[in-house]
Amino acid sequence: MNSIKISLLQESELPKAEKLLRLSFGTFLGLSEPMNFGNGAEYTSRWYREPLGAFAAKADDQLIGFCMLANWGSCAGFGPIVTHPDYWDQGIGSQLITASWSKFDEWKSQQIIFCTHANSPKHIYFYGKFGAEPRFLIALCTKSVLLIQSQPLKAIRYSQLSSEQQAESLNAAYQLTDQIYEGLDWRSEILLVQQRFLGDTLLIWDDTGLIGFAICHYGTGSEAAKESCYVKLAAAKSATAFEQLIEQCETFSLILGMSSLVAGVDTACVNAYRLLLAKKFRIAVLSVSIHKPNQTGYSRPDVYVIEDKR
């Protein structure tokens, strides 16, 4: 095998990385046309969230693998991790994980969270070698919004706020996630969506302050599939606030002219999971959450979050 070099993934390499991702995942899933993986969803915009947390694997200066990390304060996200099919089972993933884990140590991440294929013993065993263990199933759910009744949008759109109001909203969003898990910080995800025109963030307030927000992806370049609004991350203070947030996401999707709303939930957050099903969402894909260390974190019944950990 050619010598493999691990380095930082460069912005100029993102188009190649996106193609590599489609080829790798599409091949693993057995698609007849692997390059159609994702149905228009794109994932390499994550590079702009944390350029120093994206690593490339190269052989003879050719990109053959990469991974991306997210710094969420006390927690960290991991993925995607991608290797060209021609280089599977040759230790490339292990080298990328070693680089990633060093970055998590630098960030002093208390909890690393991601997901993998629930039906793949190979992947679950692989991550276990690095101290990352499987926990609960994650349900990626979808709902058609074509038949819902049109209502005015009551949630506030982050993109339509003044700079002062945006700063206030970012602070309030952090206060909300910090209450869910100390130090959890999704502000970089809100800013990424705003700065890269990947969608918008919906905010719901009451007399006590911010009670819920949803980071929504849609359109070209985003992580949403064609004709879909994808709730990448969302958090609410209570069941009532969570239900309001879902309803506002449905209304927003209809306003955008999308045909479906997509949201994922860790089934460890059983109350949020049951509420999604009660709102007529249906499970499209199951994956399994992976934690390092093997602790609950914010995957608890009393927590109302949307996060499929991809």
TrEMBL record:
UniProt-recorded Gene Ontology molecular function terms: acyltransferase activity, transferring groups other than amino-acyl groups
Domain N-acetyltransferase per the UniProt entry, residue ranges: 4-152
Alphabetized CDD domains for the sequence: NAT_SF (cd04301)
Pfam family, one: Acetyltransf_1
Signal sequence bounds: none
The organism's place on the tree of life at top rank: Bacteria
Protein name (record): GCN5-related N-acetyltransferase
